[in-house]
Design brief:
alpha/beta, Rossmann fold, 2 domains, seven-stranded parallel sheet, six-stranded parallel sheet, 34% helix, D-inositol 3-phosphate glycosyltransferase, glycosyltransferase, glycosyltransferase activity, Glyco_trans_4-like_N
């Protein structure tokens, strides 16, 4: 098996608009030691621009919808001509099409990450029998499935995915970006029109019904003098704006739109998520279902007290890991009471809790490299196991714990599925089924 630094990998993702899975991919690629290209099936949005700025090649397949079956042969051709050693898929549509395309192209090492699996939905779509059956059928074509939390791993295993094929690699953050700074707090409040001494509640996420930001708007509206900073965009934005007006709180509800999770805009005029967190006094995640809860971890890294309905990143751990996080129920009245308590106690910053160190992105990248080792070992000639079975691969190499990422490859520019760059290594035969990554459940 070739050294991991010589491996050529392709990441296939459904879209590259602003979202947790998309931003997580960008962060991970900064810590990958091999050449990585990214192919998005559709929507090469702001994260595609960020990846290109990082030096990553990004290609748009131009898929027209879930049933654009013509995308499959184009994807197969792209993978085959690129001679990728490993294909890593992200999000439901990319996992279904990408795993099949990788198999047809002859790429044996195929890994998929499940970023957003809830009890009743996956990436916002209802978990119908057909959705589940298609997912499971495509899952058998890969070598390993990565879950972003123990909660998601348990859900996958409950579906019938063999436990030996499920590997937990939690999401991660660059904690230093979120370190609290009083000067940033004052500057951000001034730029967003907030009174210097106002009590500010915060939320971050897609403005979709499942996030339940309407509850947060109602709760802040019920607290005279409190302000809400809500970063994110989506189909609920107009409805939330109307709700704030109906409640007479439109001057205190600030719907900010999408903001860069990694920092301020290039011209410095638009505060990013780290600066917005510095301007807040308490963070709220009212969503009923989450696969991980990355925004909560970022808020804790910024020293904010957190109120959340559900957050596997926190709920799966002992309470001592995140003493600043408090789990609450789904009712508006309970949220109002909790926020009033924080408001009366006054603003206070907390030291970043142990959970922040646990979810360091460099640690997550090392764990992912262990999964790659297993998948590549299983795909090597003579490896035990066949597709769809629980064969045993060679153990992961310990050297993965210390690898450093080289400078990323130059970007040839956007375009609808251009030719891959010159081949870098042979394709590998059909996949096996590696065992669970050592320590992945820790």
């Amino acid at each position: 098996m070739k050294p991991i630094e010589s491996v050529k990998a392709l990441h296939v993702i459904t879209g590259l608009g602003v979202g947790g899975a998309e931003q997580q991919l960008r962060l991970l690629l900064r810590h990958m030691p091999m050449q990585c290209d990214v192919l998005t099936l559709t929507n090469p949005g702001p994260v595609a621009e960020g990846l290109r700025a990082d030096g990553v090649r990004v290609v748009n397949l131009g898929m027209r919808g879930n049933r654009d079956l013509g995308a499959l042969p184009r994807l197969v051709k792209f993978i085959r001509r690129g001679r990728y050693d490993l294909v890593h898929t992200h999000l439901y549509r990319a996992c279904v099409y990408g795993r099949l395309a990788a198999r047809l192209a002859g790429t044996g090492a195929t890994v998929a990450t499940e970023h957003s699996l809830g009890e009743g939905e996956i990436e916002g779509r209802p978990l119908s029998g057909g959705v589940r059956a298609l997912y499971l059928a495509s899952e058998r074509l890969g070598a390993a499935t990565v879950a972003v939390s123990d909660t998601v791993a348990a859900r996958l295993e409950g579906w019938g995915v063999p436990a030996a094929r499920v590997h937990v690699v939690p999401n991660g953050i660059e904690a230093a970006r979120f370190r609290f700074d009083e000067g940033v707090r004052r500057g951000t409040r001034a730029r967003t029109g907030l009174p210097e001494r106002a009590f500010v509640v915060g939320g971050v996420g897609r403005l979709v019904p499942g996030k339940r930001f309407d509850v947060l708007v109602r709760a802040v509206a019920a607290l005279p003098g409190a302000h809400l900073l809500l970063a994110g965009d989506g189909p609920e934005r107009a409805g939330l704006r109307r709700l704030a007006a109906d409640l007479g709180a439109q001057s205190r509800i600030h719907l900010l739109g999408e903001r860069d999770p990694l920092g301020d805009s290039a011209d410095g005029r638009t505060p990013g998520i780290p600066a917005l967190l510095a301007a807040m006094d308490v963070f709220v995640s009212p969503s009923r279902e989450e696969a991980f809860g990355l925004a909560v971890v970022e808020a804790l890294a910024a020293g904010l007290p957190v109120l959340h309905v559900t957050c596997p990143a926190i709920d799966d751990l002992p309470a001592a890991e995140a003493p600043g996080a408090r789990r609450i129920g789904t009712g508006t009245e309970e949220l109002v009471a909790a926020l009033r308590g924080h408001m009366e106690a006054g603003a206070r910053r907390l030291p970043p809790p142990p959970v922040v160190r646990r979810y360091d992105i460099a640690h997550s990248a090392r764990r992912l490299l262990d999964v790659y080792d297993l998948a590549l070992s299983a795909a090597s000639p003579g490896a035990a196991g066949t597709a769809g079975t629980a064969g045993t691969a060679a153990p992961a190499r310990g050297a993965a714990q210390h690898r450093q990422a080289p400078e990323p490859a130059a970007d040839p520019g956007p375009g609808p599925c251009p030719e891959p760059r010159s081949p870098a290594g042979p394709t590998v035969p059909g996949p096996g089924s590696p065992r669970r990554t050592p320590g992945a459940r820790g």
